[in-house]
Amino acid sequence: MSAATNRILEVLPDEETIARRAADVVAASAREAIGARGRFTFAVSGGRTPWVMFRALADEDLPWDKVGIWQVDERVAPEGHADRNLTNLLPMIPSEADLRAMPVTDEDLDAAAERYARSLPEAFDLVHLGMGDDGHTASLVPGDPVLEVTDRDVALTGVYRGLRRMTVTYPVLDRAGSALWMIDGVDKAPMLPRLLAGDRSIPAGRVSTVKQLIVADAAAAAEVAP
């Protein structure tokens, strides 16, 4: 029997305080993992919040050469494209870190997904996640067959909001030591109570990582019961 999922919510005033708190969590997780095993493995989702978090992480004294960073998901678009998560994330990540970018420019995307899956650690120390206004997380999007993929660690979506995506699947998220959610904005408010309840009718609610810390701003938490 798998262990029960423990979701903890912290509500903070705004995006900047969320980013600072998330940076503290990442830094503490990195120090713990490096102290125990000599390496920290971290998976980062798309969206704007990771950029702010990595700016805050710049204040932390971390041995970045012992940090491996993988992408949770990426849009299938040319290198340097404005829609690529990596385009905005890359300048924020210290050059000493071991960054593994998703190979979404390969001609054979199925083979590229299999190759990326082989690069993943057995279990991430920490996975960063966000949530969309429709309850999606990573690129696990409502109604897409990717939601039911359990025999592969990396898979491809259909077209979602104009582009296909490459994404890790639920088994990867569920094996991680911890998940760190960063959720901001009033458009997420209807979905946050459903995430907290583990509502499997939204993709985010199906994430079963045992330890989950949800850091949300006051706007996103507006519909959470006190």
List keywords for this structure.
6 helices; alpha/beta; Rossmann fold; single chain; 226 residues
In short:
The chain is an alpha/beta fold and 226 residues long.
Largest sheet geometry: 7 strands, parallel
Q: Mean pLDDT score, rounded? A: 95
The CATH topology corresponds to: Rossmann fold
Sheet/helix structural class: alpha/beta
Strand order in space, largest sheet: 1-10-9-6-2-3-5
Q: Which bin fits the share of residues in helices?
A: 25-40%
The helix tally amounts to 6
Low-confidence stretches: none
Oligomer: single chain
Order of helix and strand elements from N to C terminus: EHEHEEHEHEEEHEHE
Q: Cα distance, first to last residue? A: 32 Å
Using the CA coordinates, give the radius of gyration. Answer: 16 Å
Number of separate structural domains: 1
Count of individual beta strands:
10
Relative strand content: 15-25%
CATH class: Alpha Beta
Shape: globular
CATH architecture: 3-Layer(aba) Sandwich
Description:
- The protein is of the alpha/beta class and 226 residues long.
- It has a single domain, classed as 3-Layer(aba) Sandwich (Rossmann fold), CATH 3.40.50.
- It contains six helices and ten strands; from the N terminus they run βαβαββαβαβββαβαβ.
- It has helices at 15-37, 49-57, 85-89, 109-119, 170-175, 192-196; strands at residues 6-12, 40-44, 67-71, 73-75, 98-100, 126-129, 154-156, 165-168, 178-183, 211-217.
- A seven-stranded parallel β-sheet has the order 1-10-9-6-2-3-5, covered by helices on one side.
- Helix 6 links the parallel strand 9 (178-183) and strand 10 (211-217).
- The relative contact order is 0.20.
- The mean pLDDT is 95.
